[in-house]
Amino acid sequence: MTGASSGIGAATAGLLAARGMRVVVNYLRDTKAADEVVAGIEAAGGQAMAVQADVREAAAVESMVEQIQAAWGGIDVLVHNALIPYAVKSFQDMTWEELGGKIDAEMHAAFAVTKAVLPAMSEQGWGRIIYISTGLSRRPRAGMIALGAAKAALEQFARYLAQELGPQGITVNIVAAGPVEDTRMGSALDEEIKQRQAALTPVGRLARPADVAQAVAFYAGEDNAFMTGTTAAVNGGMSMD
């Protein structure tokens, strides 16, 4: 799982491990946080390992996959959650480097990690790929054009993969989260905005990392053999399509 040292990633890693999966906790910089996630999983009786890699770099991703294969063999499930930095500003104030750079980095990371895991999945005729996205890909919010546009590209990429990989027994799905508490993105919202967004949500609160993890775990399971190319909106009913 990419970006698994905190927030949604850490919650998902813990849940998947509790359901019997061996989990790779990928991280970029925070070794201590990644090791704590692994320690928590192992203390609960699960299996996990932490591997550092910048998923925007194909060579780093390939090295990570080689480490995993040496330890555990092929990768059955890919959960791509790594947060690629982005600018928060209006289009009028934005440069092409900020907008195009975010889209390029988002897609480069998704391309690299997917390319790296596909050979083993294709060979065994089974695999699960889940990309973490955001409702901002469909419903704009001021200042979020870079993130929203990049995630919209990621979601369409996932649909094309679902069409291509379905005959090989590989499902590809998206979990699109609304505002999530206890994450880096959620921490950037002030309390007034959080309260206003919670008031717009039928269930009366913002999402928690565990809510997103539950959706990912469903898509990652063996029972999910027929749903592919779909998007799970984990937003408490804030938006309904």
TrEMBL record:
Oxidoreductase recorded as keyword: yes
EC annotation from Swiss-Prot or TrEMBL: 1.1.1.-
Gene3D superfamilies: NAD(P)-binding Rossmann-like Domain
Cross-referenced InterPro entries: NAD(P)-bd_dom_sf, SDR, SDR_fam
Keyword list, A-Z: Oxidoreductase
GO molecular function, one term: oxidoreductase activity
Family, as annotated: Belongs to the short-chain dehydrogenases/reductases (SDR) family.
Protein name: SDR family NAD(P)-dependent oxidoreductase
Species whose genome carries this gene: Streptomyces kebangsaanensis
